[in-house]
Amino acid sequence: MADLGPGGAAVWERTGGAHPRRIVAAVLLLGLAVEAVHQLLAGEGAPDLPIIDDWLHSGLILAASAICALGARRREPGPGRAAWWCFAVALLLFALGEITWGTLYADGGVVPTPNPTDVFYIATYPLFMAGLVLMVRARVLDVPWHRWLDGFVLVLVVATPGVALVILPVLESAPLDQLGRLVTVAYPLGDVLLIGALLGSLPLMSWRLAGSWPWVGAGLLCLTAADSAYSLAATDVVSHEGPYDFLWSAGALAFAVGSTRLPAGAHPSREITGWPAVALPLGAQLFALATQVYGWFRPLPNAERLLTIAVLVVGIAQIVVSRPRAPRDG
């Protein structure tokens, strides 16, 4: 089912008028540029400038949430509309987390883990994930088994370096209490799963990059990059404002742009043949093999070894499921 019904495209183009949209876009882009320049020039650990680091930053994310909600309302009922409601609510919760942080911890100092902002931030992960799933449902009519395996192997490929580069370093500096460790690791784990799901959705959609999906991808990449930078730099005494916080605003605005794109209709799964059909499983196998060889020279965490073994197993399953079959006799 397409996101827009008969005549929906015309309605989509007429709604709101071109000039107001351009003015809003220019204002938001200018705000993002101001925030980015300020934070990059100020550098790490600079004093908080509330008008930019708090008000402008949160305002950009709130505006992005409102635009996504408007984009959801303009779509017909179905998975496409539900996806954008998920994104809108996720951005709203993120903005509320930023506002709460600015209210409670703007002066820096000791920030407890967990703290009230974690409720807002962590709640965004299942919403973003649900939005991705619903986008796939809105775009694909049928998904063969081997495409699901392609998506799963991409999740594993992303998770393998993510464990060593992000999750384990964060765990080393996490609080000693169990709840604090659980909350601390929830952020990098959520980021790794989101990026894995983002890339894993590509084969499910037959590698069709159209409509709003590229903007959703850019938004998630910006958000998770900012999360990772903050998670790796955070200590017991922190200032939330950093040189890359504008990436959160940029990610939110990328979602806003995506919500204004003409929705892509649902398509049947496209058959891929030749080298493109084997490139992903072959690349995943080589990646897993290279990781295991690397383990002979440098110590690898047990989680890394298990993930690469899982990649190899799924790769074998891909070959079995997608193997050519003799035609059945009528």
Automatic annotation (TrEMBL):
The chain crosses the membrane at residues 84-106, 118-136, 148-170, 182-202, 214-234, 246-264, 276-297, 303-321. Keywords: Membrane, Transmembrane, Transmembrane helix. The keyword Transferase does not apply. It comes from the Bacteria. This is Uncharacterized protein. It comes from Actinomycetospora cinnamomea.
